[in-house]
User: Fold this.
Amino acid sequence: MNGCDVCAVKCWTKEGLIGNYDWSFLCTPQIPCLKAVDPPMYLGKDDKLPLSLSLSFGLQHMLAMCVGIATSGGMLHANEACWSFRYDSKLCENQSFLVSCSWLASGLLTILQVFRMKIKGTPFSLGTGLVSVMGTSFTFLPMGQAMITAYLEDAKATGDSRCLADMPYKDSTTTLVTDCQGVGVEAYGKFLGTAAVASIFEIVIALTFTRKFVREKMFPPVVVGMAVLMIGGALISGGMKYFGGGVFCAQNMLSRSASFGGPQLCNESGEVMAAYGAPEAWGLGLSVIFMGITIQMIGSPYLKSTFLFWSMMFGVIVSAIAKGPLRNYDGETVEEDLSFWTNTRIKNAPVFTFFWSEIAFKPGFAIEYFLPLLICSFITTAETIGDVMMTAKFSKITDEAEIMARQQGGVLADGVNSIIACLCGSPPNTTFSQNNGIIALTRCASRSAGFACAGWLIFIGLFGKVGAAMASIPMPIVGGVILQCFTMVFVAGMQILGPLLAIRRNSFIVMLSLAFGLGVAMEPQVVSAAGASSFFGKNLDHNHGLWPRKMVCDEFPTVSSTITAEMCAITNTTGAVHSLSLDSASCEGVGVYTAAVTEMVEIKTCSNDNGRCCLKYNKAADSLRTSVVLILKTPYCIAVLIALFLNLILPYEKDEEDEEVAPKSKEMDVVVASVSAA
Assistant:
């Protein structure tokens, strides 16, 4: 056991409560007119800390990651069910509860990761025994959102009995929508269940990690770097969509305008409603960015390491003071001086909450999403391997065998913790890389800080009002924060890959992987004709693309088509017969009536019906199509698969082999030093 011996002792004494730590370095603003302060003393992984120091460092770790956990947790998943055209009141109304669940799960699972337990009778350990803080993985976010979106749209298209028409939208008494109650909840449950099964892959990798093929062929630095790079690259566009007002309105600006002549309005910022990219959205988003720049210019090291939280809080203050308009689809202002905030979520949220207290998600399994989620698990494993190596280095562990043992324990804990997280209603968890930057900055590698961070996460997760406040933040503020989160991950990938590009073989692997990874990020319609459009573009997805969905439809809608029109044959005085288009009543007594001849004709093309063009899909074929399309159009899936495949088949040239083999440990040090930016 490697956890109980690092707790603070004798907290009632001055030494146990305050200690003699020099706070001047962390708390002094770094501006030119002030004298530079020497860094603090180094605190090892097993050093006991006074209570105040442990809580303070733990708070620093928590503030650096709480926003990322909330957004990559249930907040953005549930947000997919909050649209007037794609609505599940049960899931949407539990958005703040899912934020609390994510914080709670991350706190509890951090304890398991930091504690480290030896598995009796085996050479394996569970956990790293280092300050490896757990949080919800960004890697799984796009897949969870895609599942909720698809299930809601299919339920509405097929007339699912749970979809109740003419229901009030959120708190509105005037806007009526189709509320598919429970469909999004079912989809989220299937996402959790499928992700939990996929997480078994990490456990398998952990139990075989000592094998050379697994370490050097499946998870070499070039594959790890590509995974980190493309996770950031895939998510940056999503961050920009939130920055401009919201994902849904961003994705449907053009397609809705083509169908109805007006833009899709963003309605995720309190009472304010405007088109995507409105000046008001830019103002809120930039307030977050500018505050971050200010902190980096003159802030203390403590503030710099937690700048995302303070930037978000500044944006929250600005949004509370500012006012915005309500505009119609023609861009005309209907009402002014509206608030960017509504207190409905905060008012309705319970004071205290815990797993399953508000709603329980029944785990399911969606085979069509299993392969994409399995790839996500592979990518998360690659992240964890690099992350734990960096944490070990910052904890002054230099023995390669010991580092490998910590990596094995970290990957095993990642897999086990992800399964537990899914059972608790939170997306899969992984180690958060940004916490390593805090270790390097504070020179504190004591696991006391890790346990304290876990305690802070559990503390804020227990208060439902805190999660509700996070879920109520206007979307441009959220966008300003997560845009920086995602871009930091992208930059970390660049730093990992940079030193590796001197080798021609690695350069070719990165070139081809980026070609398709960034290519589908920029032009997703090359795979799926709908592109980024999630609503009106479904017609295109049905008819066109690499694999049109109509190809997996077993039963198309039918309409009655007239083969021969109804006729009335009239004979005149000369004996000539004239056929007139008259109904039977008009023809009676003046001619001979012939009824129209009709037949039912299948409609295989989709036109202005939002993809609702099939009554019954071939389940197996549709599942396969969903998996293939998701893999091909998800940047980090296709890029990492290409990098992995090329690394397996491309031979080393003699000079490259010498370069790769001889300085192997030096190369990995470069990786370790680089990932910290994530």
Remarks:
- The chain has two domains: 4-32+65-341+350-544+626-675, 555-619.
- Residues 51-79 form the longest helix (29 residues).
- The mean pLDDT is 85.
